Amino acid sequence: MIKEGAHTYIDGQGPVVPYTGKYAVKLADPFAVIHAGWDAAGITGAYRPLRVEFELTDRCNDTCKSCGMGAKPLADGITLSDAQMDHLLTEFTDVALSSVAITGGEPFVVPRQLYRFMERAHGTVDIGKITTNGIWGSEKRCAPTLDRLVGAGLLENRIFVPLLMVSIGEQTTPLEYVARIIHHVVTQFTDRELNIAVSSLADPADRKHRVYELLALYEKLYGDFPHDRVHSTMRVYLENERLEDQAPIHRPGTTSVTRWMKACYDCFAPTVGTYVLPCALMKASGDLYSCAAFNVPEKLGFGNLFRESFREILERVNSSAYVRTVRDGHGLKGVGEVVSSSVTDSMTCDSFCGSCKLLINKFEEATGQQEPGGRLRTFIPLRGLAVRGEQHA
């Protein structure tokens, strides 16, 4: 499979090769097009996201004990209303957002809302990625679902080649479904039309990935696995502070925060190919985070898109001393200008996001400047969250 990192293109650092990378672009000059949109909309500042990854719903057909997104059972979760989806499109258009990634929960448990959003986004913002556990990959549903996605405009993006990301790990979706989706995509679409990726999440206790089961099953059902078409994302489950009753995660080994800082890439530099950066995360409640990592620190939450305008939130992100320090320093290593190595050498954690969380606290102690993210905990996640005073069922 195609490993992450093979094709990374950063704004101002050389040419872009279209149709390469997990998040491939269709254009040789995507950054020029994106900048032109920002200029026309009057969007300035160091932090201007190329993508928002948003939860269409936090409902899911599965109940994974280590769910990174904190998904809820079908009966308990919330789904964006039609009015909320329309409101988001207005906000996305206002800041010239180039693409969105639709996630959950499981987006395909609310197909009407999924297709409606896609149809209304057509020509305004690209549907760059849809993340799914593949529950629709049965023999009866697979082909019709892909036909419906095409009918909703999935292949008609302006900048990005759309990506289907199928996540496997603790999910109970049969791997046969996942294999069928992959086979249908690679035989019915070219890599200039639709990309396919498998996100394999392993338990940190044994680091075992189900992707190897998937490879064996695919070859049994369809022959040689299409390694040249399928992008691979291999991760280990991490703790998520938004998931209150998550099963304990025991990840062996510790790494100093200093080492994490040195290895951190610049997640605020406009980037396509391996990633789409900067990328924001919006929970189904409307809470917006300046980073789309599933275990993003709560203090990187800067507002609520159903209570405030996207422009207001962007202004708040750009006024953040911590974000500015990370951006100016081209990654977490920039925080070393404020937090000394004697402090970061003595702290250990198990991830980039874990080191970011520790660094925010130390940064605040050193500067006396508090990040606003904790305020998100005061927002009431109403089942029918209102859009600026309007009530919706």
From TrEMBL:
Q: What Gene3D superfamilies does its record include? A: Aldolase class I
Concerning InterPro entries, the annotation shows: Aldolase_TIM, Radical_SAM_PqqE_MftC-like, rSAM_sf
Q: Per its record, how is this protein called by name?
A: Radical SAM protein
